[in-house]
Amino acid sequence: MKDHYQVLGVTRDSSRNEIKKAYRSLAMRFHPDRNPTNQQEAEEKFKEIHAAYEVLGDESARRQYDYLFVLSQMARDAKGDAFSSISDEEGLRQLLRQLADLGLDFGTVHMHGCRRGFGRRCWRW
Predict the structure, then answer these.
(1) Residue 125 counted as domain residue
(2) C-alpha span between 125 and 123 (Å, rounded)
(3) What gap in Å lies between CA 85 and CA 68, rounded to an integer?
(4) How many domains does the chain have?
(5) Is 119 inside any structural domain?
(6) pLDDT tens for each residue of the chain, 125 residues long
(7) Are the CB atoms for 3 and 44 separated by under 8 Å?
(8) 42 within some domain
(9) Does residue 37 lie in a domain region?
(10) Residue 29 near residue 20 (C-beta atoms within 8 A)
(11) What is the pTM of this model?
(12) Which of 1, 15, 73, 97 suits 114 as a labelling partner, its CA being 20 to 30 A distant?
């Protein structure tokens, strides 16, 4: 899976307008009609640019993509065990902070002793 930010040549903290500007510039540059000599190659690149913009241009899709990126980074850092970094309470807090920075709001997590969830303790958000 390619990094959509790299495809468009923008950073992760780029604004929506910067992403739109980068998309338009690249779309004009790699449009198949503007590249008659390399039409097949230009068409593939154009599709890749369009797919990246579809994700990054929509705020909710961009948040989901960033969320999955954080999880994939954690999996790579864990060297095989994707959840080793959240095995303790501080690791979980760090993960929730990273996800909150991406715009996901979990509110406050409290552990309580209710019996919902087939007799196990449950997380109340």
Answers:
(1) no
(2) 6
(3) 16
(4) 1
(5) no
(6) 678 999 999 999 999 999 999 999 999 999 999 999 999 999 999 999 999 999 999 998 998 888 888 777 777 776 555 455 555 566 667 777 777 776 666 554 444 445 444 444 455 44
(7) no
(8) yes
(9) yes
(10) no
(11) 0.62
(12) 97
